[in-house]
Amino acid sequence: MARWAPERGAVLSELAEEVLAVFPRGRILVGVDGVDGSGRTTFARDLAGALRARDVSAAACSLDDFHTAESGWADADARTYYAAAYDYAAFRRLVVEPYRRGDRIPLAHRPSGNGTILDPPVFAPAERAVLVVEGPFLHRPELVGLWHTSALLQVPRAAARRRAAERDGIAIDDPRLEREFQAVELYYRAVDARRLANASFDMTDPAHPRRVFADAC
Q1: How far is CA 189 from the centre of its chain?
Q2: What is the per-residue pLDDT for 14?
Q3: How many of the other CB atoms lie within 10 Å of CB of 154?
Q4: Of 77, 96, 143, 159, which one has the fewest beta carbons inside 10 Å?
Q5: pLDDT at 131
Q6: Residue of 214, 194, 102 whose CA lies nearest to 150
Q7: CA 59, CA 15: separation in Å to the nearest integer?
Q8: Four-CA torsion 199, 185, 115, 178, nearest 10 degrees
């Protein structure tokens, strides 16, 4: 018998309420971590929507907009890719620092690409605001200290790979996909993201995310 899990909207509403209750003032940064194919893009977008439904200034953006030039990674192995595929300094400079100041910030720094979330294209945060950032590797040392709170989306690797391949219209054994998933394995060996994240969700069924607790039997 399948294990019961609440509807997606209820899960996101509960998480939005939790974020606002724990952090009742100021400009909050929420990280949504997960392997490619885990559904982190739509999760972040929908969480921002749930926050706006509570009359809070909120938006979602993607770390993938700070992916370095793909042409430079044609022959890179997974270890090289993991080390330098994202420009974390640019992300801090162009998103985090202006957001903290309350400046208007564009949320799509790459006009095209999988990472762009136009939600909205430009965000003018109020004194009370939440910016939800989705991406891989959000708990590595360069980023982990940024988040007021964070979520890790978990999904079986085979399902995640299949979803990512279908989304991008590529073969499931495409070398680029293989490299990215190998880099994720390096990440999880280097960083205990499940321990560092404030909440974890089983995304095997995207319509019914199930919260996972570390002490669950």
Answers
A1: 19
A2: 97
A3: 20
A4: 77
A5: 97
A6: 194
A7: 15
A8: -150
Contacts for 194-197: CB closer than 8 Å, 24+ residues apart:
194/152, 194/154, 196/139, 196/144, 196/150, 197/33, 197/139, 197/150, 197/151, 197/152
Distance CA 179, CA 79 (A): 9
Q: Compute the chain's Rg from CA coordinates.
A: 17
**Side chain identity at residue 76, one-letter code:** A
> What is the predicted pLDDT for the residue at 2?
53
Please state whether the predicted TM-score (pTM) of the whole model is above 0.85.
yes
Q: Going from the N-terminus, what domains does the chain have, and what CATH number goes with each?
A: 26-212 (3.40.50.300)
CA–CA gap between residue 15 and residue 19 (Å, rounded): 6
Residue type, 151: A
Over the stretch 130-177, which tens digit does the pLDDT of each residue have?
999 999 999 999 999 999 999 999 999 999 999 999 988 999 998 888
